[in-house]
Structures are given as C-alpha cells and as structure tokens.
Hints:
With 273 residues, the chain is an alpha/beta fold. It is built from 11 helices and 8 strands.
Amino acid sequence: MIIDGHAHASGDFLKPESIIDNLDIYEVDKVILVPGELGSAKNYSLPNLAKLFPSNNVVKATNLLTKFVIGITGTVKQIPKGNEHVYNLIKKTKGRAIQFIWITQQIENPIKYLNDKFDEWNFKGVKLHQCWEDYSIDSEFFSAIAEWTEKKNLPLFIHLYSDNQTKQLIEYKKAHPKLKLIVAHLFGLEIFIKHKFRDENLYFDTSTIQLISTKRLKNAIKFVGASNITFGTDTPYGKHNLKKNIDRIKSLDISTKEKEMILGENMRKLLNI
C-alpha cells in the first residue's frame, strides 16, 4: 500500500477526477488531504534547495517567506472554508482521499469545532502550521489541540517554525508519550538527534524532494528507523511530486520491507485502516 500522507486539495488534487487519475497513474492507494489554495489547479515549481544545501534544514528559510506572504494575504482566514471543501471533495473520491482537519486560532472555540466536525466528518487526523499564525508549543492553544488529538487517538501533523519551537516540542512530547505526532518536512531532525530524543509515537514526514535531501532522509531513517517515517509529497508544491518522491524512496539502499513501511504501511497503522 502507498499512501501520500501530506498533500493539499489543489493542483493535481483539486478535483475528484484528477485525484483518482493521479493516484492510479502512480499506483498510489490513498492520499491525505488538507486545505490548499481554493479553486487553484496550479502546481508550483520549487527550486531544488535540498540539492544546493544537502546538510541543511532549508525549510527554516522557506518558513520565513511563507510567514511573510501569509501575513500579507491573510489567507489563514480561508482555512475553515478549506476544511469544508476537503470534506465535500473526499466524498467523491471513492474512498481514495482521507481528511486531516486544519486547526487555526481564527476558529472560535476550536475544541467545540473539533468535536462538532469529528462527529460530522469523521476526519482521521489534525494539522497545525506555525508559519500561518503566531503561537508557541507552550501556548494554551497548542496544548488544547494536542490533548484533544491524543484523547481521540488521532495523529497530530505539525509544521514547525523554528529551532526553538522544535526544542519546546521535544519537551512536550516527553510529557505526552502517547501522542501520535508527525513532524512535517523532517523539520528540526538534527535537534532531535542532538537531544537523542525519539519514541514509538514520533514520526517524520518525507515531503518533499526539493526541500529534503536524500542525505537528511537517510539520517532520519538511521535515527528513528523506517518504522517512524511517513511518506508525503506536499502537492501542489513541486511538479510531478508523486513520481519524484516515490522513485526516491524506491531508490534507497534499504530493504523492500522498509520501503513499504515508509511508503504506506506506517501511515496505514497510524490511521488503523
């Protein structure tokens, strides 16, 4: 089984037909979707920063740009509408798409929102993104969302903003070993390694090939094992993402079983599907 564990409902995954077609072409079973640019069929070309800086966490640099752009455009206000769009979209994909709900501080009473939408939509995970608005891991907002997610035994997928936030996340995770946590883009991997922190419910997302070098991906596998790596493409950010990212995993010098774990088995177990 292959599961794209990190993608947005735009670009190649804007419409039900294009979702199914793209998954079929590359023999992908399912995709996890969160909101993207509403109504946009554009797939973005990304510079291969990972090739230029193979040892560096280049997402720290792209985070600065993302935060600046989102601050100007105010796009974060569209996330609730985006969640609604994802729910309506996946109903038309014959079970091929899975919803993770994106939570922001723009949502009045986020815990009530989570409870209401969980009952209505039965989403399978929760996403947080620190570049889209200011909040810290030691904030009441993060704690409330993480505690809700842990109680529901759902994975929490988080895009971290900085090294400092990575360190705070490590301390939070130490106190909450049962929380199923996926760290987007291998962010802060070197800090996790420096602190020698890993646990069975801590996972790292591989998206995407333009941002994560094969060198860093190998370091992640060596540190936490293939059992704690989840495959993702971050579509539409990068063209031909499914093919490029699948080919990269298949080319790694690891066992067939380890490749299968990364490409889908780990996420399948996380989602109990």
